[in-house]
Design brief:
Blueprint: H1 2-26, E1 44-47, E2 55-68, E3 80-96, E4 99-110, E5 128-137, E6 145-151, E7 191-200, E8 203-211, E9 237-238, E10 256-264, E11 286-302, E12 307-324, E13 327-339, E14 352-362, E15 368-379, E16 386-398, E17 402-412, E18 425-435
C-alpha cells in the first residue's frame, strides 16, 4: 500500500509537468492552428507619472504543497497532505527618489490541521503583517538609505535575507539555521527596528538595530531545547534575558544589532529590497563574498548565577551564479558560528557551528534545474551532529513566476521535530508556485 501511494504521489508530480512541457515541445499542431502559449510577464505596476519613475508595484504569490508524512515512523500508514505553504501580498511605492514605503502581509502553513469550519472561528491561521517599513535616501547616490519599521534587512548570511519568491531549492533549508531568530526574537524573521543599507561600487551592506520579541511570546519561551536530545549536556541558560532584570534591578536585553556585508567580484545585485535572489539561471555572473553578525547583548540569562550573557553569532559565505555551457550553475556555501551560552540549544541552532552548501544546474532545453542542499550542525551540548539533505528538481513553466518542484527531504538527529524516530525525518514534497 505504501508503494502504491508513493507511486500515486510521483505520478501526480509527473502529470502536473507533462501538459505544459508537451505543449511547448509540439509548438503547433499538424494543422498549424495551435500556437505556443504566451508566458510573457510584465510586473504588476501602477505608473504614477509618464516617465514611470513614480509607481506602485504589487506582488502576489501562492506556494501550494503536497507532502507525505514522516516515512521514518515505523509501520505508519502513508498519508498525503495538501496545504498552503505561503500566501502573500506585497506592495511598495516610490513617488520620490528620496523615499519608499513597503507593506507585506499574508499567511503561512495553512492546511487541514489548522483549517476551521467557517474560517473565522477557533484558533485558525490569521493574515498578519510580515513587513511594514518606510525608507529615506540620505545620500545623493546609493551609499546610504535609512529605514524604520517591521523589516527584513537581516544580518549573518545571504540566506537569512532570502526571497521566498525565487529559491533555487524548494524552500529554506530546515532546521532554519539561517533564519536562526525566527520566532525566537522576531516575528517570522522580521524585527522592529532601524536599518541602514547601501551600495558603493561592488560593495554593499545592511546594518540594523532592533528590538527583540517579548520572550513570553517566543517559540519555547526561551527554554533550552537540548533537553529533547538523549545524553545532551545540561545547560542553565535560557534565552529570555529581555524578560529578566539584571542584578541591580534594571531592565536589559532590549537591543539586537546585526549586519551583513558583501563584495561582488563581477556583476552587482540590486539592494532596493532586502530579498535575495536564489538563482538568475545564468543570466548574470555573480560571485559574492559575504560576512555577517548578530549580537543580542544580555539576551541570555543564566538561571544558576542570575547573570545575563551575550548572544552573538558570526558567519561567512560565498555565492556563485553564472552561465555555464547552455545553462546556468548555482553554488552557495556558508559557515556559521553560534554562541548562546554554555551548552544551549536553540529552536533552530545551538552553541557551536553549522555548515551549509547547495548546488544546482539550469538546463534551458528542458526548463529544469536539478539541485541538492546539505547542512550539518555541530553543537557543544550534543553527541551527534544534526544534518539535513534536500535533493530535488525545479520545472519552470515560466521562470520563477510559475514553477513546479519535487523534492526528497531528510533530517537526521534532530529530536526537536521528530520525537520517537531517533530524530529522523524523511519526506517527499511537491510544490506548485506562482507569483505575479
Amino acid at each position: 500500500m505504501k508503494k502504491q501511494l508513493l507511486s500515486v504521489f510521483m505520478a501526480l508530480s509527473v502529470c502536473w509537468c507533462i501538459p505544459a512541457n508537451a505543449q511547448e515541445e509540439n509548438g503547433k499542431d499538424a494543422d498549424n492552428l495551435v500556437a505556443k502559449p504566451d508566458h510573457s510577464y510584465k510586473p504588476l505596476t501602477l505608473k504614477l507619472d509618464d516617465s514611470g519613475s513614480k509607481y506602485v508595484r504589487f506582488i502576489i504569490w501562492h506556494q501550494q504543497w503536497l507532502q507525505t508524512n514522516n516515512r521514518e515512523v515505523d509501520d505508519l500508514k502513508m498519508q498525503l497532505t495538501s496545504f498552503t505553504r505561503r500566501s502573500r501580498m506585497l506592495a511598495f511605492a516610490q513617488i520620490s527618489p528620496r523615499f519608499l514605503i513597503l507593506t507585506h502581509f499574508g499567511l503561512n502553513n495553512f492546511g487541514p490541521n489548522n483549517q476551521t469550519s467557517l474560517g473565522n472561528n477557533g484558533d485558525g491561521p490569521q493574515l498578519f503583517l510580515h513587513d511594514a517599513w518606510t525608507e529615506f535616501k540620505v545620500s545623493n547616490n546609493d551609499a546610504l538609505h535609512i529605514g524604520t519599521g517591521l523589516h527584513y534587512w537581516k544580518g549573518l548570511t545571504r540566506l537569512a535575507n532570502a526571497s521566498t519568491l525565487n529559491f533555487m531549492t524548494m524552500d529554506q533549508a530546515r532546521p532554519f539555521t539561517h533564519w536562526h531568530s525566527l520566532g525566537v526574537t522576531d516575528q517570522f524573521a522580521r524585527h522592529f527596528g532601524v536599518y541602514a543599507k547601501g551600495q558603493i561600487g561592488q560593495f554593499d551592506y545592511r546594518f540594523a538595530i532592533n528590538n527583540p520579541l517579548n520572550p513570553a511570546n517566543a517559540l519555547g519561551a526561551g527554554a533550552n531545547y537540548g533537553a529533547a536530545f538523549p545524553n545532551s549536556e545540561a545547560s542553565t541558560i535560557t534565552y529570555d534575558g529581555a524578560a529578566q532584570i539584571d542584578l541591580d534591578g534594571d531592565p536589559t536585553g532590549n537591543t539586537i544589532v546585526e549586519g551583513y556585508f558583501r563584495y561582488n567580484l563581477f556583476d552587482t545585485e540590486s539592494t532596493k529590497l532586502p530579498y535575495q535572489v536564489g538563482t538568475y539561471f545564468g543570466k548574470k555572473k555573480i560571485l559574492g563574498f559575504g560576512a555577517g553578525f548578530f549580537r543580542h547583548a544580555n539576551g541570555a540569562f543564566d538561571t544558576a548565577t542570575g547573570e545575563h550573557e551575550n548572544v552573538q553569532h558570526f558567519a561567512a559565505d560565498v555565492f556563485y551564479d553564472a552561465p555555464l555551457g547552455d545553462g546556468g550553475i548555482n553554488a552557495y556555501a556558508a559557515f556559521q558560528s553560534f554562541d548562546y551560552g554554555d551548552n544551549y540549544v536553540s529552536r533552530w541552532a545551538g552553541t557551536g557551528t553549522n555548515i551549509y552548501v547547495q548546488g544546482g544546474y539550469y538546463i534551458p532545453s528542458l526548463n529544469i534545474m536539478p539541485y541538492f542542499a546539505y547542512q550539518s550542525g555541530s553543537y557543544d551540548a550534543l553527541e551527534d551532529n544534526i544534518s539535513s539533505m534536500d535533493i530535488g528538481v525545479n520545472y519552470y513553466v515560466s521562470g520563477h513566476n510559475a514553477k513546479i518542484t519535487l523534492e526528497y527531504h531528510t533530517i537526521r538527529g534532530d529530536f526537536r521535530d521528530s520525537p520517537g524516530t531517533d530524530g529522523d525525518v524523511t519526506q517527499w514534497r511537491l510544490q506548485t508556485h506562482i507569483f505575479l
